[in-house]
What does this fold into?
Amino acid sequence: MAYSEIVLDHFKNPRNVGEIVNADGLGEVGNPVCGDMMSVYIKVDGDRIADIKFKTFGCGAAIAVSSMITELAKGKTLDEAMKIKNSDVAKALGGLPPNKLHCSNLGADALHAAIKNYLDRKSGKVMAKEEGEPHHAQKGEACYCPYCEKKVEEESPFCIFCGAEIPHEHDH
Amino acid sequence: MAFIYLDHQSNTPLHPRVKEAMIHHIETVFGNPSSDHQVGQPAAQALDRARSQAAALINANPPEVVFTSGGTESVNQAIKGVAIGLREKGRHIITSNIEHKSVLNSLRTLRLLDYRVTSLDVDSHGLVDPGAVEKAITPETILISVMLANNEIGTIEPIAEIAQIAKKHKIVMHTDAVAAVGNIPVDVQELGVNLLSLAANQFYGPSGVGALYIRKGTPVWPLLDGGTQENKRRAGTENLIGIVGLGMAAEIAQAAIPERAVRLRALKERLEQGLKAGVPEIHINGHPTHNLPHLLSVSVEYIEGESLMLMLDDEGIVVATRSACASGSLRASHVLIGTGMDFATAQGTLVFTLGEDNTAADIDRVLEVMPGIVQTLRDMSPIYKKSAS
It folds into this structure.
C-alpha cells in the first residue's frame, strides 16, 4: 500500500462529506465509467467560500483528495480557491502514488467547476447547476502512439514503430 | 496482527509441510540435478520426485511436466512455444475475451509478429460457446487457448468439449488452469488438452514456481534457450527449492481437494446468501453452478471497489477488488465488461477467495461489517441518491 498516513486519515475520516441544500455553486466532474466522479457544493458569503461539501464515487485516493480540497478551500476567497492547483492537493496529502495522481486532478477541477458555476449563476448565464465536462472522455478500443500516430497494441510499453516510450494514458 | 484473509487467489500461504520440505531440501541438498556425480544425484532425485508429485495432481505422465517460474511463464511458453513451433503451418490463434493478462499479452506480442487472433465473446455468465470456437477455426488455425476457470468470476469453462473440437481439427489446445489446479480436481486425460498451465502459489506452495503440462508430441518450441534441462523444453538450472515446494504442495492438494472443496463451497454459500440478505443492490458474478468452490465475485452498485477494499482492510478483512482504479491500468476489468456488465457496476467489484484456514466465524464477521461499510460509501457517493430518486 503506497498511500501516505494523511491520505489514509482523510479516506477513513473524510471531512465535509454531504450536500448543501440550496448551494450557491455545484461542480461535477468525472463519471463512474472512468472510475471516479466528484460533486462539490459551495456556499458563498461575500467573496468567500463559507461552506463546502462533497460527494465522491471513487478509490481511496479520490475520497482523500475530495476531503482535502474542501479543507483547503473552506474560508478562502474565490480568487484564492481558483488558484488551488492539483499539485497543492497532492502535496497537502503528503504525496500520492504515481498512478493515482489523476485523482488529484479531479479535486481541483471539481472545486473550480463549482466556483465557475457560482459565477455563471450570479451573472445570469445559467439558472442552477451545470453539468461538468466528463473528466475522462471514453476512448475507443484502439491505442495510437502519441508521437508517430501509428496504431499500437494496448498497454504497449513503447512504440514498435518509432521506439518512443508510451505514457500511461491517465498519467497527467 | 490478526486478520481474515480472503484473497487466496493473490497468493496462498505456504502450507507448513511445504515449508518443512523446502527447508529440509535447503539443508540437505545443494547439487545441480544435471550433474552425474554424488552431489548432483540427490538433486536429480528431488527433481524426479517433485515431477511425479506434480504429474499425479493432474493425472499426467511425469515426463510431460515441465517446471517454470510460475503461471505467467507457463502460459507464455505454451502460447509462444506453439506459435513458433507451428509457424510454417499457420498463424491463426483462437482465444476468449476473458483470459488472464498473461494470455492476452502473449497474444499481443504474437500480433506484432503477424499472427492473427480471434477472441471469442462469452455469455453473461462468462461461458465460452464451444460451437463458436468451432466456427472460428480456419485452415490456418494452430492453437486454441481457453482458460479452465476464470480467476475473476470463477466460471469453469467447457474445456473437454472445446478440446474435442480442437482434436477433431488437429489443432493444439492449451488451457490456462492456474486458477483451477489445486482447488478442483483437474485431469489432463479427461480434459484432453495438449497443454495446461498451473502455478504453485494457488495451492499453498511457493510463489515463483509453476509447471506446464506438455502432452507427448506437442510441438512446443522453448522460450528460454540454453541447456537441455526439462527435456529440452526449459533451459537453465532448475529452481529446485521452489520445485520441491510445488511437488509437496501438489501431493497435499491431491489428498485435500475433495474435502476442502466441499467445505469451502459451503462457506462461500454462507457468504453469498448473507451478502444477498444484508446488502441491497448487489450482483453475484459468474456461472451459478459451473464455478470454483472457493471464489465469490460480487459487484456492489453505486460505489467503487478500491475504497470498499480499503475499508474492509481497516476492519481486518483482506479481499481483492477489480475496480479500474486498483488495476494499475485504470480500465475496468475486461472480464466483467466481457460478460456484458456496465462499466460503473464493474467498478464496484470485490473478489473473495476462501482458503483452508477460513471458518464460518470469518464469514460471519464479513457479513457483520459489510452492510455498514457499503452504506457509508453509498452515502458518500454522488450516484447513489441520483439512482435512488
Summary: Residues 16-253 of chain B form a domain with the Aspartate Aminotransferase; domain 2 fold (CATH 3.40.640.10).
